[in-house]
Amino acid sequence: MKIVPDTSVVIDGRITNLIDTGEYNGAHIIIPEAVVAELEAQANQGREIGFSGLTELQELCKLAEQGIISIEFVGVRPSLEQVKLASGGEIDALIRKVAIDYGARFITSDVVQSEVAKAKGIDVLYLKPQVEDFTPLAIDQFFDEHTIAVYLKERAKPVARKGTIQKTETMTLRDQLCTEYELRMIAQEILERAKRDPDGFIEIEKRGVTVVQIGSMRISITRRPFSDGMEITAVRPIVDLSLDDYSEADLIKQMLKGEKPGILITGPPGCGKTTLAQAIATYLCDEGVIIKTMEQPREMLVPDQITQYTALDGSMANTADVLLLVRPDFVIFDELRRNEDFEVFADMRLAGIGMIGIIHAVSPHEALQRFADRLDFSVLAQIFGSMIYVRDGQIHQICSTSFSMKVPEGIDSDMQIRPVTTVSDVKTNLPIFEIFRYGTETIVLPVEEEGEEPETSEKYVPPEETVMHAEPREEPVEEKAPDDEEPDEEEETNAWSITERDIQREIGRYTGGEVNVEMLSATKAVVYIDDRDVPAAIGKGGKNIAAIVNKVGVGIDIRPSSELAKKVKALSPGSSDREELTLGDGLQVRIDKKQLSIISPDNTGKIVDVFAGREYLFTATVNDSGEIHLAKNSTIAQEMLRRYNEGEPIRLKTV
């Protein structure tokens, strides 16, 4: 009997299985060169199905050497034009032509190929997907009832992670190293099963990586050049819970009733987010709710009534277009990663569909930040009204969101009323986070409970593009025992001095002049710098000052030094608009209405350092008229006059 297999049955290994059963012993297998070319192209692209097909051809050649069958490679390789038109069926036509020319039985597992062959009168055998009687996979030997994941890599010992969601441990399964041949056999079997099993899908197929979902098991197969060696990772869930198994089941059911809500399930990887989503999906399905899922890969274990969708043409936006036509009551989106995912989730929710999203985040704060960085914070309350934080398989916190116009908590009272999204704990009804915009920055700010002792006493002071004016608030003073008062004051003074130096160092990067720091409290400071350098220190959208605040842990109010000048009594009362002072050593100072000039004819054209007593003040160049000109209200001028009024000698030293 002559047999011509097409590419589909070569890839899934069905031909060797038929020969092993004795059905085609002594058959003459004719392999079209078009099949070889297609498999070779797939292997060159790093696709696992290409390697699986080539392995099947090698097995057929071994059977031919044993005399069980005979094999022949015939036909011509497809041309470049035929390769370009492969999606239109050009290569399939070449394979069918070989069956016609040799009068052979044509075997395929492609339903379209089968129907075309029947239409042309070819003797065709269509191998339907195998529905039952599957033998265990080779990778199953590494699993037991406690195994969560298995890691197989060539030239390494097989490793498994076992335990529960709350506690896991990693252990070596055997001392023998995995070989590339062993992993290739396991990978081929996995791909064959994925093609036959109705619960099997090849979710991702790219150069060097293949992701397969078979039932509840997600298997990732990587090879060079994507990884430094062949590796197979298999992960499966170990628990299947119903919604009633959770302590907050009644509260979640209440959230799901009424208007179609938006719910965000967040937590670190492997904490049980998908398990909770499965429980919610099953509950809604049992309640007669039409529910769909959007997943890539499709790993949720849900009833058959729930249709699981993946990315259409590689885009979840296309999937959303279809779902809006299907009009489900709820959609579970597992998981939100890319910017497009967040936009699709928001669009579908605002379109009126109940959405349940799953997002990786270590804490609720990080989850909110991921949303706020991608979407307008003012619509977050409309996108998801509730947020469930899962950790170690348990629900640790449920939050609700609301929107209002107010002054954010924990911020200086000078801030104007602005849009604020508040995230509150459902049980206590107390605010946990507030999200608002300041300048171009979106701030996610934790809210401290009344009476709670914070880890640090700092309060966030947001950046401004203009100068901020805030009066220091009176802090409540606790009575202390006389013996403890002096050490506490000394410790506070030392801490403030260190903070002042940190602020001077950081602000000094943006100004060439003097930096005067006035500590109002342990968490608030006013900094005076040259008027011209104020915008640079604040930065575009307040980014520079925000970075400094986060680094030093103190709220900073940037002010121009001209304000400081008003606080310094530079001249005695009753002075005229023009004043001349003699400093000694041939130095004179002339003070006009707007300018202060240091007159030193002996240093004409020289660069000099100006000192007050032994302390360096600044460096300047004496002009051709023998003068140094300073703005009268500048920090440098006012400081020099203050030192002079305190009796300190002013002198110049040539550089």
Question: Topology, please?
Answer:
Elements: E1 2-5, H1 7-11, H2 14-20, E2 28-32, H3 33-44, H4 48-65, E3 70-74, H5 80-84, H6 90-102, E4 105-108, H7 111-119, E5 124-126, E6 147-153, E7 159-163, E8 168-172, H8 180-196, E9 200-206, E10 209-214, E11 217-222, E12 231-235, H9 249-256, E13 262-267, H10 273-286, E14 291-295, E15 307-309, H11 316-326, E16 330-334, H12 339-350, E17 354-360, H13 364-372, H14 380-383, E18 386-391, E19 394-406, E20 418-425, E21 431-438, E22 441-446, H15 482-507, E23 516-521, E24 524-529, H16 534-538, H17 543-552, E25 555-560, H18 561-567, E26 579-584, E27 587-591, E28 595-599, E29 607-612, E30 615-621, E31 627-631, H19 635-645, E32 650-654
Parallel strand pairs: 1-2, 1-4, 2-3, 4-5, 13-17, 13-18, 14-15, 14-16, 16-17, 24-25
Antiparallel strand pairs: 6-7, 6-12, 7-8, 9-10, 10-11, 11-12, 18-19, 19-20, 20-21, 21-22, 23-24, 26-27, 27-28, 28-31, 29-30, 29-32
Short description:
This protein is an alpha/beta fold and 655 residues long. The protein has 19 helices and 32 strands. A hairpin with a 2-residue loop joins strand 9 and strand 10.
Output the keywords.
655 residues, alpha/beta, 7-stranded antiparallel beta sheet, 19 helices, 32 strands
Briefly note the structural class of the backbone: alpha/beta
Give the overall pLDDT as a whole number.
82
What are the low-pLDDT stretches, counting only 5+ consecutive residues below 50?
451-487, 569-576
Strand order of the largest sheet: 15-14-16-17-13-18-19-20-21-22
